[in-house]
TrEMBL record:
GO terms for biological process: glutathione metabolic process. It comes from Bactrocera dorsalis (Oriental fruit fly). InterPro entries: Glutathione-S-Trfase_C-like, Glutathione-S-Trfase_C_sf, Glutathione_S-Trfase, Glutathione_S-Trfase_N, GST_C, Thioredoxin-like_sf. The gene is GST. The keyword Transferase applies. This is Glutathione-s-transferase epsilon class 6. Keywords: Transferase. Residues 232-259 are annotated as: Disordered. Residues 2-83 form the GST N-terminal domain. GO terms for molecular function: glutathione transferase activity.
Amino acid sequence: MSKLVLYYDDVSPPVRSCMMLIKLLELDVEYKYVDLFKGGQLEKSFLELNPNHTVPTLVHDNLVITDSHIILTHLCEKFEKDSEDEKLWPLSYEERIRVWNMLFFEGTVLFRRDSEFLSGIVRGGFASVDLTLHERKLLEAYNMMETYLRRHKYMAGEHMTIADISIVTTLSTVNLMFPIAAGAADRWPLLNDWFGRMQALPVYHINQTGLEKLCVVIERFGKFKFPNSVTAAPEVKQQREEAASEEANTESQEKAAEK
């Protein structure tokens, strides 16, 4: 078997979910960085590998997998230990359907709505987006997840699965703008509790690191600050300071030009 290769940029929530699972499964993976905000996904060599120019992209022997949900499923199918009682990818058909249902929810509802919001900020700045519209759509997704969690402790059942890993990376991104804790007492108590349990995972730091990087980039593009801006690691704080300095220099130059 050839070594697993993951093409990644951890600003991407789907990438972070795959990286968290890789750590949980203790897999030996070669990581190849693709800088999304510098157009690395559009380089000819990467387009030949993945014409959809997205990350994560996993190469495993003759397989090239370009969807994070399929990557999560594949890694569990191949590498999750049979001895595990509470499997991340369940054995029973009914449980798997529940997991698939929530993976599709993440991809077609939660991630799509979050992506539309962040893409708008990147393209036109924070001032250009219809915040009321995006808030309505994303808080509706919070309501959906609260309803799912009334049925069982985790998103797809009574124990954690890859559906939870997939959802938490995107949800943590939405949480930057629309804090779940603001509705913990009345609107989303179960979602807030679930989010806290996911944040307590030993591998959650993988998500946190990428989240902080994304926060820096989006705030720079949008020229604003998230209400729930994450506490940055030292290297990320430095990036923020450099970005702020760069913006200050640009503004000074513009004012000088006006004079």
